[in-house]
Amino acid sequence: MIEFRMPSLGADMEAATLVEWVKKPGDRLKRGDVIAVVETQKGAIEIEVFNDGVLDEILTNIGEKVPVGRAIATIRGMDEALGPALRAAVPVAAPEKIAPVTAPPEEAARPPPETRVVQAQITPAARRRAQELGVDLAAVKPGLGGVVGLDQVEAARPVIKERPGILFDEMRNAIAAAMARSHREIPHYYVTSTIDVSRLMDWLEAENSRRSVPARLIYAVPLMRAAALALKETPELNGHYEEGRFEPAGRVNMGVAVAMRGGGLIAPAILEAEILDMDELMERLRDLVARVRGGRLRSSELSQGTVTFSNLGEETADSVLPLIYPPQVAIIGCGQIAERPWADHGAVVVRRTLTVSVAGDHRVSDGRRAAQFLTHFQQLLHNPEKL
Amino acid sequence: MTDAELAELVKSALLKVAPDLAGEEFAAEKRFRDQFEVDSMDLLNFMIELHRTTGIDIPERDYPKLETLAGCVAYLKTKGFGK
Amino acid sequence: MTLMRKITYREAVREALKEALECDERVFLMGEDVGRYGGAYACSKGLLQEFGEQRIRDTPLSESGFVGAGIGAALGGMRPVIEIMTVNFSLLALDQIVNNAATLRHMSGGQLSVPIVIRMATGAGRQLAAQHSHSLECWFAHIPGIKVLAPATVADARGMLWTAILDPDPVVIFEHATLYNEEGEVGAEGDLGVDIECAAVRRAGRDATIITYGGSLKKSLAATEQLASDGIDCEVIDLRALRPLDDKAIMASVVKTHRAVIVDEGWRSGSLSAEISARIMEQALYDLDAPVARVCSAEVPIPYPRHLEIAATPQPEAIVGAVRGVMRK
């Protein structure tokens, strides 16, 4: 029997409010299954379990504020005996317990009429709209006549516009706390390089012209792929620094900085990014951005990032010197793609260029390592067909 | 389809991609990028939704024509959509 | 821009007949009391005097006989407009219509065509009691080989006849008996040859779609007035053609509003409203926010006393109630 404790969901998250139990006692659990949903400053986060087993007992109620580390449930192994909660519910055939069993069987069999649940009547249009909006039909209150129609689904629709007033203030606080801690505790150094991405962009344009619209890639994807591959060679830039020790990560869980409309910034991670090809990266990125916007992320995405990639995007600025997100030890920032005069074999030409900066934690790495990363990164981008 | 109907179709496509923009005013000649906080991912998803609803294959080099609501309507008309 | 003028439905039918007789010498009108009497509903008043006995032909009281004769004339190259006084009497000519007019093209492998137009008055509302108040449009709409029209407006009464005459196959036109005195607008030169395949949106709306035809159109429009004052905005579709049905127009509206109410003066069982409801279920199920509602005549022979006749047939109050029902308001 193990105690499942509230995991940390980021550098400065101390407590979260439990809003939903997704599994109930007796349910089989696989590693990675979502067991509960909590509400934090960053929105709704799905909590995943780390072990296989069976959910034994729930220790926390809905609405409770749960600090990081508090045991919220117990999970038993597949073959373990039942926990106390379930043991009490199973009828025991001991002699002193015969009294309830001798009750007339017909009475026990007939369910009391008042508690019979009426199946909700959901119109086809409502069902489809609920799917479009991501509304859970089970939670929608029926209207007149017990019917769940379009009106009821629209009323249950998560209204994102109203939340920023509360949510984004809290998010700003969380970002402020994390960035202040970063600035305070991590000795940052920066290494910057301006690279010629003309070949990359030419290749990407040719590639996209061959693909139908839904299959196209945005330019951040080859950048992320190259970064993930280059990080495999410089492990001092990928991992966690905690309690005076650096733990290099076996995988590259790449946090991606995603701006939220309304002014928030969050950097959930694409796990094991180094083994994903560009199509897979594109799909994961698309899914991540959609869930950031919809406020539905997973706990592992927020706590297991081992490095962060921050792409300013088009029409922004030439370079960015970002702050490392603790307990990570590096962050890679890319500015906008801009045409610049470029020297090539003694002649001046115009190339599309991009300025990339790497910030490193000087307790763990130094400028030379970051420069090696940049060289490798650049080499990979000069051969985009091989990415 | 009338211009108004085409504009509605374009708006619905963008709202499908960014539902939190519902209720916002759409200035016909202003770039989406400037009116709302939409980034390259949003705009690509918008192209995909337009492609899905109209069946038109939109080459990347045409993306600059689709930066405004008016631009999108004009583009759809030149492609013969909604005739 | 053509000037519009206001005439009655009856005058529109007469003008359409006159124009057809003038334009095409193959056209002639035949039926009971169409000549000397000027038509049971006065639709052919003065035409005998103008066009003569060869072209305006009074027939004996024998629907089977004169419809058969009309079919024969059409087979011989004429373009007869056969007037059956009302749909109630057409039952006597059903064999001619179904087994000859509708099927000769098929049975002759395309060699024979029967370009007849049959006009009939239809419906209840004039206290003509059980045997003379039928709405049997749905029976005719059931038969492959014919087209079935229901002009509900003066403009359609004016314009559908010519297109029907030009059609190489049989066309049956239903004129609701309560519409003859209705006034409506037509163009200065008339609306020669309007299309006979498309439904028309008589009122655009957002909240619910009312689908109807013929004499029920004006009752449906009256219902929308009352509903509008309660904040319910209805779209009204006038089918115009009952065979073939304009599925496209129906579904476009239902997909938009998510709610459909069909107003059909026939009896509900096996009615046109049942057919339309089935098609909506087939083609737009996932867009529906409520089951399709139907407002039809009560399943009784149509009564003679006025208050009972009104109670037995679709009325604006019942249409309002049905729309509220699908709105769940």
This entry's quaternary arrangement is heterotrimer
| Contiguous uncertain segments of 5+ residues of chain C | none
The poorly predicted ranges of chain A are 85-116, 162-166
Roughly how many Å apart are the termini of chain C? Answer: 43 Å
Describe the 3D structure.
The complex is a heterotrimer of chains A (387), B (83) and C (329). Chain A has 387 residues and is α+β, with helices and mostly antiparallel strands. Chain A contains eleven helices and 22 strands. Chain A has helices at 84-89, 98-101, 105-109, 124-133, 150-155, 164-185, 198-210, 220-233, 278-294, 299-303, 367-382; strands at 2-5, 15-21, 28-29, 34-40, 43-48, 53-58, 65-67, 71-76, 121-122, 147-148, 188-196, 239-242, 245-248, 254-256, 258-260, 264-266, 269-270, 296-298, 307-311, 330-334, 338-344, 347-361. In chain A, the strands form six sheets. In chain A, strands 11, 14, 17, 19, 20, 21 and 22 form a seven-stranded mixed β-sheet that branches. In chain A, helix 8 packs across helix 9 (278-294) and helix 8 crosses helix 11 (367-382). Chain A starts with a strand and ends in a 5-residue tail after the last helix. The model of chain A is unreliable at 85-116 and 162-166 (pLDDT under 50). Chain B has 83 residues and is mostly helical. Chain B is globular, with a radius of gyration of 12 Å. Chain C folds into two domains: 7-187, Thiamin diphosphate (ThDP)-binding fold, Pyr/PP domains (Rossmann fold, 3-Layer(aba) Sandwich), CATH 3.40.50; 200-327, Rossmann fold (3-Layer(aba) Sandwich), CATH 3.40.50. Chain C has helices spanning 9-23, 47-51, 63-75, 87-90, 94-101, 104-107, 137-141, 154-166, 216-229, 247-257, 272-284, 306-312, 316-327, and strands spanning 4-8, 27-31, 56-58, 79-86, 117-122, 147-149, 171-176, 183-187, 200-203, 208-212, 234-238, 241-243, 260-267, 293-297. Chain C is globular, with a radius of gyration of 20 Å. The interface between A and B is medium-sized, with 23 and 23 residues.
Brief overview:
With 83 residues, chain B is an all-alpha fold.
